[in-house]
Amino acid sequence: MFERPYLKIVRARIKEPRKFIQVILGPRQVGKTTMVNQLLSQIPAPYLYQSADAISATNSVWLMQVWESARLKMRAEGGTEFLLVIDEIQKIDNWSEVVKHQWDRDTYENINIKVILLGSSRLLIQKGLNDSLAGRFETLYLGHWSYTEMHEAFGWDVKQYIYFGGYPGSAALIGDEERWKNYIKDSLIETSVSKDILMLTRVDKPALLKRLFETGCLYSGQILSYSKLLGQLQDAGNTTTLANYLKLLSDAGLLGGLDKYAGDIIRKRGSSPKFQVYNNALITSQNNTSFEKAIINPELWGRLAESSTGSHLINNSISERYNVCYWREGNQEVDFVLENGDIFIGLEVKSGIKAANEGMKIFLEKFHPQKVLLVGTGGIPFEEFLKINPKELF
Question: Which of 333, 325, 335, 332 lies closest to 305 in space, CA to CA?
Answer without folding.
Answer: 335
